[in-house]
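User: Just a sanity check before I run the rest of the batch. Below are the structure tokens for the first item. I only need the designed sequence back.
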């Protein structure tokens, strides 16, 4: 799993989705999730850049996002938004 900062995304979206935290890319880049803090919750805006549907993705992503949330103390406030 790869978590990285996308400074361009943070600049372009500003506060539209909340405070930008980090971007997740799954192992084979089938899944991308941009994480934003909005009030007391953290929203993961999940997209599928290769065109796969959520049911066809073979890369792990939900467990990786939950593990990241746990490590950073917001596991009970993580909300996945599929795009």
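Assistant: Here's the designed sequence for the first item:
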């Amino acid at each position: 799993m790869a978590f990285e900062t996308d400074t361009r995304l943070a600049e372009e979206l500003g506060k539209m989705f909340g405070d930008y935290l980090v971007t997740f890319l799954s192992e084979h880049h089938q899944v991308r999730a941009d994480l934003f803090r909005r009030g007391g919750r953290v929203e993961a805006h999940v997209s599928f850049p290769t065109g796969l549907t959520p049911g066809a993705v073979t890369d792990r992503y939900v467990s990786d996002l939950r593990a990241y949330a746990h490590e950073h103390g917001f596991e009970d406030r993580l909300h996945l938004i599929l795009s």
